[in-house]
């Protein structure tokens, strides 16, 4: 059985990301493209998103925990610097899965040429709702126990 982080990510992928990707595949397909080819493209994109969710599970969890720590300290957002590998991975995971799914917002500012600090604000109420749908324990994900 998948852990709660993986279950939450898979739910986000199935409910939000894959649907949007399927729409994009259909929109980008030419009228002459066979339906079987479009269906294969959708399956490929879906598998890629599932794979990405598995790869980014740890940075996703770490980013959520960092954001939760900030929230508990009275903040409403975290800043992640892409020049630091762990923060870059966390920003990638949170933006890819939460911002794309409209479960968070993000802004960026350039620090050095081609380097950015991403400020990410999570919609905790909506994320809690999604976690409930996915039957996952946010406390477990955030390190608060079961």
Short description:
This protein is of the alpha+beta class and 146 residues long. It has 6 helices and 3 strands; from the N terminus they run H-H-H-E-H-E-E-H-H. Helices cover 62% and strands 12% of the residues.
Please characterize this protein's 3D structure.
With 146 residues, this protein is α+β, with helices and mostly antiparallel strands. It has 2 domains: 4-55, no CATH class; 57-135. Helices cover 62% and strands 12% of the residues. The chain has 6 helices and 3 strands; from the N terminus they run αααβαββαα. It has a 3-stranded antiparallel sheet with strand order 1-3-2. It is globular, with a radius of gyration of 17 Å.
Main attributes?
146 residues, alpha+beta, 3-stranded antiparallel β-sheet, globular
Strand content: 5-15%
Number of separate helices: 6
Taking Cα atoms only, what radius of gyration do you get, to the nearest Å? 17 Å
Tally the structural domains. Answer: 2
On the 0 to 100 scale, the average pLDDT is 88
Shape: globular
Which sequence of SSEs, written as H and E, runs from N to C? HHHEHEEHH
Parts with pLDDT < 50 across at least 5 consecutive residues? none
Strand order of the largest sheet: 1-3-2
Strand count, sense and barrel status of the largest sheet are: 3 strands, antiparallel
């Amino acid at each position: 059985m998948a852990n709660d982080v993986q279950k939450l990510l898979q739910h986000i992928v199935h409910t939000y990301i894959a649907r949007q990707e399927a729409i994009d595949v259909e929109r980008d397909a030419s009228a002459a493209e066979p339906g079987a080819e479009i269906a294969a493209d959708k399956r490929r994109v879906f598998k890629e998103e599932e794979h990405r969710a598995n790869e980014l599970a740890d940075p996703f969890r770490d980013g959520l925990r960092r954001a939760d720590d900030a929230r508990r300290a009275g903040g409403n957002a975290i800043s992640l610097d892409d020049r630091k590998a762990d923060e870059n991975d966390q920003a990638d995971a949170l933006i890819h899965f939460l911002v794309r799914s409209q479960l968070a917002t993000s802004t960026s500012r350039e620090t050095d040429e081609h380097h950015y600090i991403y400020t990410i604000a999570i919609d905790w109420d909506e994320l809690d709702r999604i976690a409930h749908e996915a039957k996952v324990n946010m406390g477990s994900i955030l390190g608060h126990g079961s």
